[in-house]
Amino acid sequence: MEPINIEFFGYFAAVLTTAAFLPQLVKTLKTKKAEDVSLVTLIMFICGVSSWIIYGYKISSAPILLANIITFILNLFILISKVYYSNNIRS
User: Helix or strand or coil: residue 4?
Assistant: First the structure.
């Protein structure tokens, strides 16, 4: 029996942790509301994901890079939506 390639776990984790943000993004875009999403949490998370991208690049880890680039983009869209919809409510 051949041992499981450790990269499998990296890609599996990447898919799960990245996909976890899709429901929030879809809900935010559908309802055009993001008041329940913490601005501080989003900013901290985006900074953390940026650090993971740098780390993944430096160690040449495709699963870390791929997951965190996609997660960065999804969370950036959530952040933009939060700011945009918050400003539109006040106008």
Answer: coil
Domain total in the chain: 1
The Cα 77–Cα 25 span in angstroms is: 7
- Specify the pTM: 0.80
Would you say residue 21 lies in a domain?
yes
Token pair 């040449």 in the structure block, residue: 60
Rounded CA gap, 11 and 67, in Å?
Answer: 8
Give me the CATH number covering residue 54. Answer: 1.20.1280.290
The pLDDT tens digits for 10-67 are 888 889 988 988 998 899 889 988 888 889 989 999 999 999 999 999 999 988 999 9
Instruction: Report the sign of the C-alpha dihedral through residues 65, 69, 74, 76, in that order.
Output: positive
Which amino acid appears at position 16 of this protein? L
Domain assignment present for residue 47? The answer is: yes
Residue 18 belongs to domain spanning: 6-90
